[in-house]
Amino acid sequence: MKEVLARLNSDLKKIDEIILAFSRGKSPLIQEISHHLIFSGGKRIRPVLLIMAAKLFGTKSQDNHHNLGIVPKILCLFRATCSVLRASWIKITEARCTKHEARNIPDTKFCLTTNLGAAIELIHSATLLHDDVVDASQIRRGKKTANAVWDNKASILVGDYLFSIAFQLMVRCGNLRVLDLLSQASSIMADGEVMQLQNSNDIALSREKYLEIIFCKTAALFSAACECGALINNAAEAEISALREFGKNLGMIFQIVDDVLDYSSRKQILGKDIGNDFFEGKVTLPIIFAYKNASETEQKFIAEIFEKNLITTDKNHNNLKEILTLIKKYNSLEASQKLALNYHKSALENLEIFPESQVKQDLIVILNYSLERIS
Prior knowledge:
The protein is 75% helix and 1% strand. The protein is mainly α. The protein has a single domain (2-372), classed as Orthogonal Bundle (Farnesyl Diphosphate Synthase).
C-alpha cells in the first residue's frame, strides 16, 4: 500500500495544496478545525481511487490513437475541440470569480483530477465533522475529534463550509455529469446517515437494510470517486459502469471491515474507541449475525440491551463483554468477513474489462488492503 501511495505522491501533494488554499476562510477557526481533521493522518483513499481510475485510461488512449485508423483520429479531434471549449468555459468562470476565490486558487494550471480529488476529500471530511457531532464521538484517527476539542456548533459550521468549497471546486471542473454525480453521492450519503439514525437500537434490523445503509453512507462516495475518473476521460459506458461497481464493492468492503474491527481490533489500529458502534447503539453486521443465530434467551438479552438502551449505563463494559462472547460463539466476525470476500470477488471481476497495467495492479493492491486490515 505504501508503494502505491508513493507513486501518487505528486498528485496527493497537489490535492493537499488545493485543500490548504481553499480551506482558509475569513475566520481562523475554519482553518484550525478543518486542518485538525483533514491533516490528521487519513490515507486519502477516495481521491486516490479517482486518480487511479483516471490513470487507467492514460496508456490506453495513446495505444488506440497509434494502432487504429481514421475513426480514433476523428474522435481525438472531437475530444480536443471539447477540451478547448471546456478550457474556455473554465477561463470565463474563473474570470467571474470574486477576489476571495481568486486568492484561493493555488495554481495557474487547472487540473481536473486533483481539483476533483480535493473536492471528494472535502466532502468526506465534512461528513466526518457532522458524523462526530451526531455520534458524540470523542476519538477519530487516534486524536480527539473536532467537537471534543472545540464544540458541536463549530464542527457543524465548519463542516458546512467544507461542503460549500467542495462544490465550488466541482463547478470549476466544467463537467455537468460529474457535478450531477457528486451532488447525488452527497445526498445519498446524508440519506444513509438519516437511515442509520432511524435504525439505531433496532435489533430487528435486517442484513439487507444494513447493506443499504452502508452503501449510502460509505460506498456511494467510493463509487462516485471511481466513476469520476472514467467520466473525465470520456470513457466508454461499459468502462464507466465497471469502475462505478468496483468503487461500490470496495466501499462495501471498507465499511464491513470497519464494523468487524469495532469488535475485534485494538484502539491503536482502529483509531477510535473499541466498541464505539456498540455504545452508539448501532446495529452492525456482527450484531446482526450474532442475533440471528442466538438462542431465544440470548436474543432476548441482546434485544434488551439495544432496545431498552442499557448501553449507556454499561460503565463497566459488562454488557459489551457479553456481546463479544456471543459474537465469538456464533462466528459472527467470520461470517461478516465471508460477505466482505464476496464483494472482493465481485470487485476483481469489475476490473477484468481493463488491460493489465501497473495502475490496475495498484487498484488490486488497494482492494486487498481493504481486507487485510482485519488480520
